[in-house]
Amino acid sequence: MKQESTSTMIIKSIMGIAMVIFLGILILQINNLEKNLILVKVESESTKLQLNKLNNTLNKINKVIKSGSFGVSSNQQVLSERKWLHPEVKNFLMGDPPKPAPEDAPSKGVFDKVYSFQGVDPKGFNFVIENGADVSEEIQEYLTMYLGRRSPNDPAVFYGDLAERIEITDDYKEYTIYIKEGVKWHRPLLDWSNPRYQWIKDEYFVTAHDVKYTYDLIMNSQVQASHSRNYYKDIESVKVLDNHTLVIRWKKKTYQSVSTTMGLYPTPKWLYAYNEDGEPFPEETAGLKFNEHWYNSKAIGCGAYQFVKWDKGVLIQLRRNDDYIGAMPPIKQINYHLIRDKNQQLLNFQSGLLDIHNLPVAQYRDKILDGPANSPYKNGTYKVEPVTRMVYRYIGWNLELPMFKDKKVRQALTHAMDRKNVIKKQLNGLGTLITGNFYRHSTAYDESIEPWEFDLSKSKKLLDEAGWIDTDGDGILDKIINGVKTDFKFGILTYGYREEIKSWVSIYKENLYKLGIQMEMQPTEWSVMLKRMEDREFDSYTGGWGLDFDGDPYQIWHSSQADLSKSSNRIGFRNKEADVIIDKLRETFEPEERVKLQRAFHKIVHEEQPYLFMYNEKLVVVTHPRLKNVSFQKARPHVQTMNWYLEE
Fold this sequence. Notes:
Blueprint: H1 6-40, H2 45-66, E1 110-114, H3 133-143, E2 148-150, E3 158-160, E4 163-169, E5 174-179, H4 208-219, H5 226-232, E6 235-242, E7 245-250, H6 256-262, H7 269-272, H8 286-291, E8 305-311, E9 315-320, E10 333-337, H9 342-351, E11 356-359, H10 361-369, E12 383-397, H11 407-415, H12 419-426, E13 431-433, H13 456-465, E14 478-481, E15 484-487, E16 489-495, H14 499-515, E17 518-524, H15 526-534, E18 540-546, H16 554-557, H17 576-587, H18 591-608, E19 611-623, E20 627-628, E21 645-646
Parallel strand pairs: 1-10, 16-17, 16-18
Antiparallel strand pairs: 2-3, 4-5, 5-7, 6-7, 8-9, 9-10, 11-19, 12-18, 12-19, 13-19, 14-15, 20-21
Helix pairs in contact: 1-2, 11-13, 17-18
């Protein structure tokens, strides 16, 4: 940057002094007005309005001072229009934000729902290290601000959230990002009567440094963020130009750079870089300390809602942030009830405790398919909305185990699963059969690929070809592996709370037994199951992935991710041909060429069967009539309540 001249610096100093004088005059005016109001006890509306206007002006100036943009700095929004580094470049953030709620919508509503789809406690709320869709979609979605978000009606384009403008130059290799000014961090949830926390009592404003801090944490090998790190590995540099401007430089043109950049969010270094007494962590162990940070059981952000409390096993509560810089949501408070039992959830919905309920398969059959015509689920009392989720279900095989290394074995295991019947009977039609990892209704999904049919005779033939034969007549297939006779027996981790999944796993077990394979069902609580999957302590498991709109397979399928701790490629899938396609896909922007690559990858996973791909999930949502303006986004998260409201 060019060195400033002496005259310019003098002018800036004079203008800064003028601002201070102006601020002092405003304070005196407010004091005089307040004194007059007290002396004459006159409560005229005109005087009140004048006082309110002055107070609002004072608050705005205070925000400017505390945000680090006081006076004439590189961000001159107070005294002049903000200057862009690339004014000739069109703002990338051209998407339409969510349509706001009606102006007359009630603003005191309390929204009650069950937390996520598990109804169980999360591990914590540190957004950098948590890898669960429950935390990102239920908590982070409302608490934080991303640089940009996908437009709800056209997810292919983005609108500005934390960023007010983004300039993409040098063939998608450089992103110049302008952060909105005056965005205030939530106040940490602490006992402020305790002098221990005086070091953190000040108000803080979000800056570009907070966004870079998130990137630095993700790239720190000590930090448990391998699930995100692969997305940022192609970044060459992240440079902060001033408090509200940063430049992200990518090593090469990569398609994923768009959504990856938009998905960045700020993390408060003033909180997470310190221990509970305000002492900075040593640089050499800062990442390790971050993983076990003393604030991880709480959440903090700068978004529309702030974290209020977490009563383990009972309730997580968010409350509207009155300092939020965006369109204020009408719902004042969100209560996430940690109710595990589906029948109890339904009773709480019907009694009015819950405003919304996701009907599981059995309740859908009971209330919708088989229910009487005059029931509230059919006569219009409740609003019933089927939602196709960008989620698929599968069985994952631990490919490090010798019995699952042969693709013929994996194909045989797929032939043994009657998926069409599972969808029809166990799911009551609430699913769509899939043959691969892409969203069933996207262009990436290859419709021409025929699913492996349910056929136990084909299963037996493939198992024979792979060398699995019952040599001792005990009814169990066996094979010599590394010189040892090994029986075909394995366990499967199963969602303990999903009755329909336990049901089809039970049927699958019977089919495998007919082939001479013993499978042990292991119903497991979600938090325990997630840890065992992350630590790769499993033979197989029933899994589910929330899909990204762009359909990038890297995180789950690239060989480079197979050996990383807590990686999403937890099954250990390695395929050189697939790696080449994934790498090309990350560098290809042309839509037609991307579809070709995606479908080529689809063919590989269909042939290899590293997963037993089951179905895209459908969700049936029921809401009370008092809940208004209800709509669902095309991309995840489908349930986003920022413009919903409740009748008082």
